[in-house]
Amino acid sequence: MALVTGATGGIGAGAARRLAAEGFFVVVHSRDGRAAGTELAAELDGYHVWADFSDEKNIVALAEQVLARLGRLDVLVNNAGISTVVEHADMAAVSAADWHALLDVNLIAPWTLTSAFLEALRSSPRPGGGSVVNVTSHAGVRPKGASIPYAATKAALNHVTRLLAAALGPHVRVNAVAPGFVETPLTAQWHEARRHWRDTAPMGRTATPADVADIVWALVANSYITGEVLLLDGGFNLR
């Protein structure tokens, strides 16, 4: 049994499809696209749940709903996230409310979900126990990103990944994948950034959702790896 949050976007849908192809019953979470979530769940013979992660009550209710329906959870993919685009030097354009909104969804929600599912993950009969995969960002590894608050939430989630891996082993493994530019509906109009990535990265291209899904699956499938943040940027960081 696997739960993928933010599963109606490019990366989330790719991860959900990959886990379903590997034999998992997949719970598909969405916030905005209820119809898209229902459609994807039907495609995968899975189950759709809705929750707005800006409200902790919704997160707890989602966990209760999933456990009441399935009785267990083996894999949690914390993919849901939000962003805001602000030039890094424009400090006046970022408010405390912006910080709180990004922290609530990008950092506190994954923590709350992992905590809510902890006993179920600990009880997973899979080799290596339960598996948590956090989808973070290249922006959490290098000083870049759509905005400073966004990058800071992803950097924090990378560190929380390592801290939880140390605290929860051996019964729960916690890892992260930190993608760079991924071809999704969100990035469809980012033409300049796409050109820069293709010109700079040794692999000469941007990533696809399938590339990210491959790493998510690798982190789930390997029963020994934990505490790793795998940078998926086609070698961009080498330049």
Instruction: Work out the number of β strands.
Output: 7
CA-based shape? globular
Please work out how many helical segments DSSP would assign.
8
Distance between termini?
40 Å
Give an account of the 3D structure.
By secondary structure, this protein is an alpha/beta fold. Helices cover 45% and strands 14% of the residues. Helix 3 (56-70) packs parallel to helix 4 (96-116) and helix 4 (96-116) runs parallel beside helix 6.
Question: How do the helices and strands line up, and which of them pair or pack?
Answer:
Layout: E1 2-4, H1 10-21, E2 26-30, H2 34-43, E3 47-50, H3 56-70, E4 75-78, H4 96-116, H5 118-122, E5 130-135, H6 148-168, E6 172-179, H7 191-200, H8 209-221, E7 229-232
Parallel strand pairs: 1-2, 1-4, 2-3, 4-5, 5-6, 6-7
Brief summary of the model shown:
Keywords: Oxidoreductase. The protein has 239 residues and is an alpha/beta fold. Helix content is 45%, strand content 14%.
Sum up the structure in keywords.
239 residues, 7-stranded parallel β-sheet, single chain, alpha/beta, globular, Rossmann fold, 8 helices
